[in-house]
Design goal:
Blueprint lengths: L2 E5 H5 L9 E8 L2 E4 L17 E5 L4 E4 L5 H14 L4 E5 L20 E5 L2 H20 L13 E3 L2 E5 L4 E6 L9 E5 L4 E9 L10 H12 L5 E6 L11 H19 L4 H7 L11 H16 L4
Parallel strand pairs: 5-6, 6-7, 7-8, 12-13
Antiparallel strand pairs: 1-2, 2-3, 3-4, 4-5, 9-10, 10-11, 11-12
Length: 305
């Protein structure tokens, strides 16, 4: 499979994504190209290049799956597309509300694509947009200039089949899980499944919706006929659907131990220190996200019958 390396210094003007590094896209299945983000906190050095993003090429046009965490990253992705195909970008799909996946969307405005999102995404962007813009400016400073929130106009409530010319992709909306506005993208030609943040590998999973809903959706995902997968973070050569197992184990452990803590009358401030702590060696960014996951699980599960 092809790898394409672009000089970030040439593309971004304001600096490279990381010292000495370039913007790499890999063809992981015919016509499916991925840029793998970094397991780092967002900073002016990495320009918000923290999520896996990419594109699918058809005979008529290109669909972008997430645009990255800043305008600079979106521009690098757009340049990578131009290095692969002369076909125009006709769709920019935002898989969910988290800013490492959508702040590069403005890089594609000149292409006049249709911006695609979950039916609940406009509401989520309206509720969080001001906060997300403020934290982007805090973390990136001038390097984040021009990064905008583009609200999608083509909304998915269930499933949407898009024709890229000789290649159909299915965009599917999922119920409450990682968030309440998660999408997946399935390339029918190659059976490549873009899972976005419904699957984390190496990076600590993040629950911003429902941990029980997340586990239910993972079971539903496992039934899909994927041959190649793209997670929202990380990478693996593990087979499908076994590649889901580490995340299912982690989330299931939190549920079990949180229920035990609740049954034993353990207060939330103590539960976040103990529940799932043994998982720390298995994930990066654990200190940043794990206690949030336990807090969310505790408040969700304490209302169970």
């Amino acid at each position: 499979m092809r790898k394409i390396l672009l000089s970030m210094l040439a593309l971004l003007g304001c600096g490279s994504i990381a010292s000495g590094a370039g913007f790499v896209v890999e063809e992981i299945a015919p016509g499916n190209f991925v840029h793998y983000g970094r397991h780092e906190d967002r900073s002016a050095l990495n320009l918000g290049d923290n999520a896996n993003i990419g594109f699918i090429v058809g005979e008529r046009c290109v669909a972008v799956i997430d645009s990255g965490g800043s305008l600079a990253v979106g521009r690098a992705l757009r340049e990578a597309i131009a290095g692969v195909t002369p076909q125009p970008v006709c769709y920019v799909i935002t898989t969910h509300v988290h800013p490492d996946h959508f702040f590069g969307a403005a890089a594609f405005l000149a292409d006049r694509p249709q911006y695609v999102g979950h039916a609940e995404l406009p509401r989520a962007l309206a509720a969080r947009g001001k906060f997300y813009k403020g934290t982007l400016e805090r973390d990136l400073g001038e390097a984040g200039a021009g990064s905008e929130i583009i609200v999608p106009e083509l909304l998915v409530k269930d499933r949407l089949r898009l024709d890229l010319g000789g290649r159909f992709i299915e965009v599917r909306a999922w119920p409450l899980a990682h968030t309440d506005n998660d999408l997946t993208v399935f390339d029918e030609t190659t059976s490549t499944l873009w899972l976005a943040d419904l699957l984390f590998l190496q990076h600590t999973p993040v629950v911003d919706g429902s941990i029980l809903g997340f586990l239910r959706v993972l079971d539903d995902l496992a039934a899909l006929p994927a041959r190649t997968i793209v997670p929202g973070h990380g990478r693996s050569d593990a087979a499908w659907p076994q590649v889901l197992d580490a995340q299912k184990r982690y989330l299931g452990l939190i549920v079990r131990e949180t229920r035990q803590a609740l049954g034993n009358g353990v207060p939330i401030q103590d539960a976040v220190e103990s529940v799932g702590a043994q998982e720390a060696p298995n994930w990066v960014n654990f200190d940043t996200y794990h206690k949030r996951n336990v807090t969310g699980a505790y408040t969700e599960l304490e209302w169970e019958d």
